[in-house]
Amino acid sequence: MIATLKARTTFWNVLVVASALGLFATLLYLWLARTLYGHHDGDLQEEARRVVAALSSTADPIAALQSLEQQGTVAPFLMVRDSHGQMVFRSERLAKVEPNIGAHEVLTHAAASGATYEQFFTVQLARGPVRFTCVPLARPDGTYLQLGRALGDVGMMLEVVTLASAVLIPIVIAMTSFGGFLIAKRALRPIDSIATALESIQATDLSRRVDPQAPDV
Question: Is this prediction's pTM over 0.85?
Answer without folding.
Answer: no
